[in-house]
Amino acid sequence: MQLGLIGLGKMGLNMAERIRAAGHEVIGYDRNPAVTDVADLGELVSRLVAPRTIWVMLPAGEPTRATIASLAQLLDPGDLVIDGGNSPYRDAAPHADVLAARGIHFCDCGVSGGVWGRTNGYGLMVGGDAADVRRALPIFDALRPEGPREEGFVHAGGTGAGHYAKMVHNAVEYGLMHAYGEGWELLKASEVIDDPAGCFKAWMRGTVVRSWLLDLLVKALDDDPELSGVDQYTPDSGEGRWALQEAVGHAVPTPVLAAALFARFASRQENSPAMQLVSALRGQFGGHEVRHTE
Hints:
Blueprint: E1 2-6, H1 10-21, E2 25-29, H2 41-47, E3 53-56, H3 62-74, E4 80-83, H4 92-100, E5 105-112, H5 117-120, E6 123-128, H6 130-135, H7 137-143, E7 153-157, H8 161-189, H9 196-202, H10 212-223, H11 239-250, H12 255-266, H13 273-286
Parallel strand pairs: 1-2, 1-3, 3-4, 4-5, 6-7
Antiparallel strand pairs: 5-6
């Protein structure tokens, strides 16, 4: 199968290589001249045989919106566009509408696997019409991990379902990572634990908390057992916020996600205004010691 792939960054370039290794032709476009196969979107479209399939792997928001709007003017009826970036699920329907006005089909695909996906395969969550999903199955099969299809791929539902599933996936990821973080801090604080990193390594086999995230954590600790070179500042991609907003809208309690997301916010504060106020209040009502900055 032939595929046009727009966006050859950390994920896109590895995805292109995995698809090529499965025997498919990939023509990639990126603004970086060192990795692109074509000069612009027009050349990309001209080199693909109709009906075309194009995968967009760009940052959420304006980069993806602008690219899909451009493709709507360049592609022909019957062509298919797949948005594989971390777009908000609510963007899927407007993207589909822009393309449908020109007779162009659309799927949204949540992709998980990070920089290890080229070797291990990617978890794929797809939204869209069943016929469009079947049409792109050779590409999905090339990207997913080896083994039963349902263990690395799901047609989650209609338009937007793929990105919704990926949003929830990332929300679960937030909670798992923060649970490991709290466990690490508690082990470090204990007077009876001599080898916190060794405890995590001991959990890698046979325990109920083993996971790929734990394997990656152990790798990080092998590189730096004290994490001394790591700053606490932790960004968020937006998916945790979107998931929490959805939870509020559906009245679904997600305290783990909320705690993990707010902990990331706290990691960016050198001196928390909220905790400054709490400290000052303790001094006022109880005469407790108030520590002052230099």
